[in-house]
Amino acid sequence: MARVQLNTPAPDFALADFQGRMVRLADFRGKQNVVLVFNRGLG
């Protein structure tokens, strides 16, 4: 996978939310700001 460059739109992706529902980044485009936080595992 190629690295995302600074100051460019993020590629679309899907992740499960806290209730297990799939959410796509594209669902929020033009509607809301999105903040992504990646936490490292505890292992």
What's the short version?
The protein has about 45 residues and is mainly β. It has strands at about 15, 20-25.
Question: What layout of secondary structure does this protein have?
Answer:
Blueprint: E1 14-16, E2 22-24
Antiparallel strand pairs: 1-2
Tags for this model:
43 residues; two-stranded antiparallel ribbon
What would you say this structure looks like, in words?
The structure is a single chain. With 43 residues, this protein is mainly beta. It has one domain. The protein is 0% helix and 14% strand. The protein is built from no helices and two strands. It has strands at 14-16, 22-24. It has a two-stranded antiparallel sheet with strand order 1-2. The radius of gyration is 12 Å and the shape is extended. It starts with 13 loop residues before the first strand and ends in a 19-residue tail after the last strand.
Number of helices in the DSSP assignment:
0
- Kindly report the average pLDDT value: 83
Which sheet architecture does the biggest sheet show?
Answer: 2 strands, antiparallel
Number of strands: 2
- The shape, in one word, is extended
Structural category is mainly beta
Radius of gyration (Å): 12 Å
Strands of the biggest beta sheet: in what spatial order?
A: 1-2
H/E order of the elements? Answer: EE
> Beta-strand level of the residues, as a percent range?
5-15%
| Termini separation | 25 Å
Assembly category: single chain
